[in-house]
Every structure is written in structure tokens, then in C-alpha cells.
Amino acid sequence: MKKIFLIAFSFFISAQLSAQNYIDFTNHYKSFRLFEKPSIELNYGSSGIKLNGTANNLANAGLIELKLGFTTKRKSYFGKDITGYENRYFFVGNASDKNNPKSKGNEEIKNDLWRFGFGNKDAYGLKLGSVEIMPYNSNSFAWSKFTYENGAMTAEADKNYYNDFNDVFRFGSSTEGGINLQITPGFSIQPQFETAIIFPRHLFGKQLMSSVIEMSGYYLIDNFTKKIMRNAPAAGTFVNFILKNAYEFGFYQLRKDKMNWPFNSAAPMRYYTYKLGLAFTF
After folding, report:
1. Does the N-terminal peptide bond of residue 262 adopt cis geometry, omega within 30 degrees of 0?
2. Label partner for 272 (CA 20 to 30 A): which of 31, 60, 113, 216?
């Protein structure tokens, strides 16, 4: 019942964010139409996994990821060279030491992670001739299944930590910052940095309040950057990118010991990923 309730809550939060994005687009962008163009994104990167309270040498993983979604881009009232960009997507990915050519083999603990989920990325874009730069922020929900070679782990206490996540799907969330470099219409290159957390268990009340605190701060930053966009659109494009991603990274750090910060709760599994993506819009 708790899992069903949490999933329902996740969709509720996503709907609220989508509704806010819809209002923002109708207020600030011309001729808005949702889900305009289908898009495919292919990503590859290197992931590092952390779990506070443990000191084991987990191998860095190579991530292979596919995102399928719909992209909307419109001219903005903020300036003739400013565009609004939004991409809503479903994703599936695998992060494994087998995908990492730099894996040290027996010197590190082998691990594998499968995940799927849905997310939303948005940005203000800056047109520079035929090229367009869109520095974005992305948020997503995911269900992840982590497995590891527990025979290589010596400390029994550390095994107990990792066994909370081992071979079972767990709910989590992630944020991502990146720059969408549109080289030609329909094709872009995206350097990205993602931070993600996986919850060992669900504490609905604490998780709800922690999410409300996080979203309240994000909403204030969003409104602050809109005021900057009105006065300095080109600079505001990058200020929006820096402030939102810095805020999300700060929350990621605050949750390293308490998954439902500021409330007492267990440490989540955390991982960060440097990625490079190729995106195709049709």
C-alpha cells in the first residue's frame, strides 16, 4: 500500500511541476503547443557510487542510457534571440563495471545497476547564428535495481548497508545539469552531469515534507531568474542554469547522510555521472 501511495504521490508531484511549466510557457512563449516533436537521446558516461558509512572500493560503472520523449521549443518574449526549451521523457539505462573500459577488474568490487523512470528538462536557449545554446536543468524519478559482488566485501556491517539495495527495485530521484548544443536543426550534443539518490525504504511523511522544502526553494529561484531574464535575457539564460543546478547539487549534498533531510532518516545510495549525449529531434 505504501508503494502504491508513493507512486501516486510521485505522479502528483510530476503533474504539479508540469502544470507550473505549462503556465510558464503560456505566459512567456508564443504559440505554445505541448509535445510538439518526438525526440531520441543516447547517452554514455562514467558513474561513481557512494554510500555514507561504508568504505568499500566499488568499481566505477559505465552508463548506457536511452531517453524517448517529446520536445517543445518556442520563441520567447524575453528577446528575439531567446527561446524556451522543454523535453519530457521516459528513460532506461544500465550502469555496470562491464561497460567501463577503465575498470580495474579484481581490484574493485563489481556492480551493476538497471533503472527506468520519467523526467523533465527545461531551459532558456540563446541563438548564435545557426547554432543554439540551451543550458538546462532536469529532474526525474526512477526505479533502480542495484546488484554487487558481495563475496568481495569483507566488512559484515558494510554488507548489511548494501544488502538494503541489493537485487531489488528501489525508488529514487535525480537531477541533471547540461548544455544542449544544437549544431543543426534536429541534432544536438549534450555534455551532462547527473546526481542521483536511491532510497533504502519509504518514509512517506518525511519524504513529502523534504520534497516540499526542496520544491519551495526551487520555485523561488525560478521566479528570481525570470526577473533577471526580463532585464538581461542573454545573461539570464546562464544565471538560470547556474542557480538552479547549484541549488539542486546543494540538496544532493545535504541528503548524503539523511535521505529525507532535514529529518532524521537513513543514508541513501548516491551516485554521480559524467555523460555525453546525442539528441535527435524529428
Report:
1. yes
2. 216
Q: Which three cell numbers stand for residue 65?
A: 542510457
Residue 250 has pLDDT above 90, yes or no: yes
- CATH label of the domain that carries residue 85: 2.40.160.20
Q: How far is CA 23 from the centre of its chain?
A: 22
Q: What pLDDT is stored for residue 105 in this prediction?
A: 63
- Answer whether residue 15 shows pLDDT above 90: no
Q: Name beta bridge partners: 276.
A: 44, 191
Number of folded domains that form the chain: 1
Domain with 164, as residue range(s), is: 2-281
- For the chain, first and last CA: distance in Å? 40
- The torsion angle over the Cα atoms of residues 151, 156, 161 and 164, rounded to 10 degrees, is 60
Backbone angles phi, psi at 218, to 5 degrees: -65, -40
Phi, psi of 167 (to 5 degrees): 60, 35
CB-based contacts of 224-231 (< 8 A; 24+ apart in sequence): 226/24, 226/28, 229/78, 229/82, 229/124, 230/78
pLDDT surpasses 70 at 136? yes
Question: Is residue 26 scored above 60 in pLDDT?
Answer: no
Nearest-angstrom CA–CA distance, 217 and 121 = 18
